[in-house]
Amino acid sequence: MTILVTGATGMVGRHVVAELVKTGHRVRALTRTPSAASLPDGVEVVGGDLTDPPSLEPSLNGVEKMYLFPVGRTARELVTVAKRAGVRRIVVLSGALADTDDSEDGYLAVERAVEDSGLEWTHVRPGEFAANWLDWAPSIKEGRVVRRPYGAAVTQPTHEADVAAVAATVLIEDGHAGRTYTLAGPEALTTVAQVHAIGTAIGATVRFEELDPAAARAEWIGNGYPEKFVDWIFTMWAESARDPAPTNQEWAGIVPRLTGRPARTFAQWATDHAAEFL
Ligand SMILES: NC(=O)c1ccc[n+]([C@@H]2O[C@H](COP(=O)([O-])OP(=O)(O)OC[C@H]3O[C@@H](n4cnc5c(N)ncnc54)[C@H](OP(=O)(O)O)[C@@H]3O)[C@@H](O)[C@H]2O)c1
């Protein structure tokens, strides 16, 4: 039985591959550039582009289960190609905010395409990735500082390895068909606390410098971030700084419940990625 992992070279996908290899499964890994994949020995690396579903046909030969990196616009055609090839279970990498994005390229488009296929499906909806803060690496490297608005905003960062552990579990085990698992890390933390945790991991003091939101908004848009995205995320942070949510225990409980292991803390994530901040 072969499991196809799309997005296999990604933050989450690499861990999905590793989990499946560790448990003795036959893994085929999809990437647009096989020569650069650098995946473990024993993994069959194949080329294909999720925006061009027919390009996956050769990769789907003999595949029973599939981890699907979300590409909304072509999801429906891709699922048709997969079903025709004999795939019977698809695990979707989605997102905790799936319900807020109904666009043709959003997570819901992928989820619905898979649900409508009649195949076994499970949606893995992670909250914010701790890895988003790799954005801070340049300023931490250069000046041991993070400059941001809303230092008091609270998020519940999720370790990519935990997202992958849940995805691998539901690929391997039966009993998860038709389920949507929304998950996050074990603790809600302010941005300032997360900056300090990275400082601890690299053995240095990292300062947090609070930026004026209006100035930060103009800077982000100037740096090429879409205005709609900046307004959305700044509004979320502003609300959270004003009224910080406690840890969402339901989301925090998914990793231990499904994998039998505690969810990784942000401190653990920072230690795992310390080299990228040095
Ligand atoms: N950031 C967050 O807070 C957050 C929260 C919830 C959900 N998510 C979801 O998680 C995703 C990121 O996952 P990740 O961190 O594992 O990925 P990632 O590190 O951003 O890597 C992207 C992966 O997708 C593959 N890929 C992208 N476009 C492709 C295409 N057209 N055809 C084939 N492969 C393609 C890439 O493969 P190659 O380049 O090798 O072809 C690579 O393996 C986001 O895109 C989002 O959907 C993110």
From TrEMBL:
Transmembrane segments: none annotated. It comes from the Bacteria. Pfam families: NAD_binding_10. InterPro entries: Ergot_Alk_Oxidoreductase (IPR051604), NAD(P)-bd_dom (IPR016040), NAD(P)-bd_dom_sf (IPR036291). Residues 7-171 form the NAD(P)-binding domain. PANTHER family: PRESTALK A DIFFERENTIATION PROTEIN A, PTHR43162. This is Uncharacterized protein YbjT (DUF2867 family). The lineage of its organism: Bacteria, Bacillati, Actinomycetota, Actinomycetes, Micromonosporales.
